[in-house]
Amino acid sequence: MPRLLLVGRNEARLAALATEAGGAPWTTNVDSALSDPAWSVYFDAQTTDRRAAAVRRALDAGKHVYCEKPAATTTEEALDL
Question: Which region holds residue 56: left if phi is over 0, alpha if psi is between -120 and 50, else beta?
Fold first, then answer.
């Protein structure tokens, strides 16, 4: 089972979610999270308009990716991923 690292933009929400998840680690620094080999899976649950760029960054970082659909806002962008 992969370890959980919560990543987001809102520190207060992350802290609350981390508490609900039993004290899970969290960060607002996505670059740090993606560059850390300890975190091998990237799960994307952002809004669709942010998803393709974030998934591309995770793929470029060598992460396994799981994301909600649609994966992108256009068919071309989704196929590129």
Answer: alpha
- Residue 48 within any structural domain of the chain: yes
Return d(Cα 14, Cα 22) in angstroms, integer: 12
Between the alpha carbon of residue 9 and those of residues 16, 47, 49, 53, 78, the distances in Å are: 13, 13, 15, 16, 24
* Encoded amino acid at 16, one letter: A
Question: Across the chain, what does the average pLDDT equal?
Answer: 93
Are 7 and 33 in contact by the 8 Å Cβ rule? The answer is yes
Range of the domain at 73: 6-80
Going from the C-alpha of 64 to that of each of 10, 34, 39, the distances in angstroms are: 24, 11, 9
CATH code assigned at 38: 3.40.50.720
Q: What is the pTM of this model?
A: 0.84
Predicted confidence (pLDDT) at residue 2 exceeds the cutoff of 80:
no
